[in-house]
Amino acid sequence: MYVIGVTGGIGAGKSMVSRILVDLGAKVVDADKIARDIVKPGEPALMELVNEFGKEILTGQGELDRQKLSQMVFGDNQKLEKLNKITHKYIVERIINLVEKEKRDKRFDIIVLDVPIPVKKGFLDIADEIWVVTADKETRIERIIKRSGFTREEAEKRIASLPGDEEYLEIADEVIENNSSLEELEKKVAKLYVKVASR
């Protein structure tokens, strides 16, 4: 079994690359989905977040109010660091467990880790190679606004809160530039996938 780590800045299109890889026959472990699962009511990660940021981050139903938490942490590096420190350990634990499970089940030849922030543990240390998805800043801003309904200022804040392109490119075994059409992206991903699958 071969593990590909797919990462890239917000709006670059890493999730689209992962969807293409699913169509090609890979199994995707989605860190964003795991991040949503670990903060469901009753989960220890949610309890830690409440202890750190207060009960005001909860809705009336006891669920995480993502918008409230986002407003609280984005633009404040200290708070963002605390948020990441709490959530990352739970996300990493789930990723490692899922990869181990897939290795035992042997249903897929290629596992893809779709991870927004290229952390060492649970990503760099278990991926056989890293694919970094890039796009021009303006393209990324447009995508974030269209997808999430953010203002331009909010989109720029999100981009600034994550690692810069240099940090991503430093760890890249393959770089996928995603500034044009979906068809063009599909061709690039399929080419890389065939290269990996034929090893």
Account of the protein in words:
- With 199 residues, this protein is of the alpha/beta class.
- It is 57% helix and 13% strand.
- The chain has helices spanning 14-23, 31-37, 44-53, 66-73, 77-105, 120-124, 137-148, 152-161, 165-170, 182-197; strands at residues 2-7, 27-30, 110-114, 129-134, 174-177.
- The N and C termini lie close together (11 Å).
Structural topology:
Blueprint lengths: L1 E6 L6 H10 L3 E4 H7 L6 H10 L12 H8 L3 H29 L4 E5 L5 H5 L4 E6 L2 H12 L3 H10 L3 H6 L3 E4 L4 H16 L2
Parallel strand pairs: 1-3, 1-4, 2-3, 4-5
Keywords:
single chain, 199 residues, alpha/beta, Rossmann fold, globular
| Strand segment count | 5
CATH superfamily: P-loop containing nucleotide triphosphate hydrolases
Q: What's the architecture, going by CATH? A: 3-Layer(aba) Sandwich
Task: State the separation between the terminal residues, measured CA to CA.
Answer: 11 Å
Short description:
This protein has helices at 14-23, 31-37, 44-53, 66-73, 77-105, 120-124, 137-148, 152-161, 165-170, 182-197; strands at 2-7, 27-30, 110-114, 129-134, 174-177. With 199 residues, the chain is an alpha/beta fold.
